[in-house]
Design brief:
By secondary structure, the protein is α/β, with parallel strands linked by helices. The protein is built from five helices and nine strands. The chain has a five-stranded parallel sheet with strand order 3-2-1-4-5, with helices on both faces. It has a two-stranded antiparallel ribbon with strand order 6-9. A two-stranded antiparallel ribbon has the order 7-8. The longest helix is centred in the middle third of the chain and has 19 residues, at 73-91.
């Protein structure tokens, strides 16, 4: 019987709908990592770290609001180590559901962040260590190559595949990503331009016996400040 569910939402947009559904429910712990710039969708204060739930659900809603673009592996893994994993282990969920958007991925034209496929795989493995009953539900993402590589990393982590003979992601055939050809995405005009991810210049996934490269990534000062502010709340 599932009595406690952890929902981790790493889509770059705040999951205000999920938050609203479970805001007073102590059986669901909702944690969202998202951009919270003044001009970033969805607008309003719902994604602020001061929104911690109400009534019996007070303390069961956690927002990690990045206040700028460019957030990367070091920031996400810092949030996982310092906040998400300790809270998740204390909560002891019977199931974890990930609102698995890949629009924080490097080269996504909307998210404008720098999370690598390696980092998505690592976060998946971290959550699996908390509870093996883990579901990833695909959400946003606006760069097909970035989605494919990120999903591959997560799938291998879910299957506990040992990467002795391969890399995560597999060697990419595309060295640059181009924005979608549509004139606008989510109602906002998008300039047709090319993004080159910073991680292309660095080694990809290390063999499983070694420490993944993204583990070594350091958080930005902005990222650390956001996480510490959330902890204080």
């Amino acid at each position: 019987v599932v009595q406690r569910i952890l929902v981790v939402d790493w889509d770059i947009h705040h999951g205000n709908g999920i938050q609203d559904m479970f805001y007073s429910d102590p059986s669901v712990l909702y944690i969202s990592l998202h951009r919270f710039d003044s001009d970033f969708f969805p607008h309003g204060s719902a994604g602020d770290c001061t929104k911690i739930g109400k009534g019996e659900g007070r303390g069961y809603n956690i927002n990690v609001p990045w206040t700028n673009e460019g957030i990367g592996d070091g920031d996400y893994l810092y949030a996982f180590r310092k906040l998400i994993l300790p809270v998740a282990r204390e909560f002891k969920p019977d199931m974890i559901i990930v609102a698995c958007g890949f629009d924080a991925a490097a080269c996504d034209p909307i998210g404008e962040c720098n999370v690598t496929p390696e980092c998505y795989a690592t976060m998946t493995a971290m959550l699996k260590s908390v509870c093996p009953k883990l579901v990833l539900s695909l959400e946003g993402g606006y760069n097909l190559e970035a989605i494919a590589n990120s999903a591959l990393g997560c799938a291998k982590a879910l299957l506990s595949i040992k990467w002795k003979a391969g890399l995560v992601p597999e060697a990419a055939s595309v060295q640059e990503y181009t924005t979608l050809p549509e004139a606008e995405i989510n109602g906002f005009p998008v300039e047709h331009k090319t993004f080159t991810p910073t991680w292309l210049a660095s080694p990809k996934w290390s063999p499983i016996e070694q420490v993944p490269e993204c583990i070594k990534a350091k958080p930005s000062e902005l990222g650390k400040d956001v996480v510490h502010r959330v902890i204080q709340e």
